[in-house]
Amino acid sequence: MTPTITCFGEVLWDVLPTSKQPGGAPMNVAADLRNFGLKAQMISRVGSDELGHELLQFIDQKHLPLDLIQIGQTHLTGVAKANISDTNEVTYKIVQPVAWDYIHLEPNLIDAVQKSDVFVYGSLAARSPMTKETLLVLLDIANLKVFDVNLRAPHYDSPTVENLLHQADIAKLNEHELIELSGWYGNGNTDLKEAMQGLYERYNLKTLCVTLGEKGAALLDATGFVRQEGFPVEVEDTIGSGDAFLAAFLYKTLQGEPAPKALAFACATGAYVAMQQGATPAFTEATITNTFLRNKPTIPFLFSNK
Prior knowledge:
The protein is α/β, with parallel strands linked by helices. It has helices spanning 25-35, 50-61, 107-115, 129-141, 158-167, 175-184, 192-202, 241-254, 259-274, 285-293, and strands at residues 4-8, 12-15, 20-23, 39-47, 69-72, 78-83, 91-94, 118-122, 144-148, 170-174, 207-211, 217-221, 224-228, 301-304.
């Protein structure tokens, strides 16, 4: 039976110097999960404006259902102004308040989350009281909880992020976020493995993934520590690469793949999206395998049970 995955949080427009693109990490993850054939759906809120209608059309084109996306009358659809001058790390100025800051707790959301196998959420959606309260209620009834840490200053605070980490079964973050989080509780450890171990134990996680940009990614779970080297590519932009990584990792993990193979596939998917323009290009499992993994004598990962 195909797993159902519900993603919660922001949907918005990434405004670039010459264009605008649909975005929001939870939506990107949901769209990428659909690329792999999983039953993904999105909880969010847009405004009853032109940008909102355009977003709904895009989401529908990505074969994501619209019944969990609320349409508000009082706030505009979300917008984030993206700075892509650094090809390795995009920065954003995220407008507040907008429609997704006001996701109402409704019976259909509760029903959807209870029936889902996996619930994916981020820290950005917790920036506003109403959406944060809705998220916390849904976390109480969710099954497997996946926290996509997404620290965007000034839209977070340490008590909220720590609370969301305590709720998580799986957490994914980047290396900069790992260092910052480690510093919050007096560790400040810059050794990758030791810093991950500290987070993993402090929040009683089942799995911790840390993306390392062009250097690949690392993972820690009950079987040990895994390090996957990056796949060299010519970068078009990195928008959505981390979201594709998470979607691919969940896809392979839900298939029962061991951590090293799931991590390699996730890194390959993130690399593929970095080669494309925009956050949600179309691809399939075969696209990723044929581009990076087929006919390779070995997959370049380092694995240790220690």
